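Submission checklist for the structure archive. All mandatory fields must be present; incomplete records are returned to the submitter.

[x] Identifier: Transcription elongation factor Spt5
[x] Organism: Methanoculleus nereidis
[x] Residue count: 157
[x] Sequence attached
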Amino acid sequence: MAESANRVYAIKTTAKQERTVADNIEKVTREQKDIHVMAVMVPEELKGYVLVESPDSIARIEQLVELIPHARAVVQGSTALSEVEHFLVPKPVVSGITEGTIVEIIAGPFKGEKAVVKRIDSGKEEITVELYESMVPIPITVRGDSVRVVERSEDAS
């Protein structure tokens, strides 16, 4: 390991197999002590790619790809960690949800029910909804990741 700086390489994968490739990279590098991988990243926004941080050369990463099913090729060149840091910052779960949006509750006791968003608490990543088909409007607070947007509303009337 002559180089001291780690580089980030993009590995092209079979569609929808990014997690499998990442898991296999971890297994293979545990067995192959001569291939060094410091971190593996599977960004949600980057479909079909796995990012690998390593001090090794691109040739070494290409050897790694040959050992892993569903890993297709290494994108030529490397990048610095600073260029992929934005993938490390989590997006708030409630981003993209506005008041008046119709959502479906996908977890909890009201699973499957449709509801209208009444209030959004970005700090706690919670939203307050009222069930769409209930006789009495009862506000229910649910976590932002337990709803799925059904219909976006520009007007919260």
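[x] Structure attached
Curator remark: The beta strands are 7-13, 39-41, 49-54, 71-74, 102-105, 114-121, 126-131, 139-143, 147-151. The mean pLDDT is 86.
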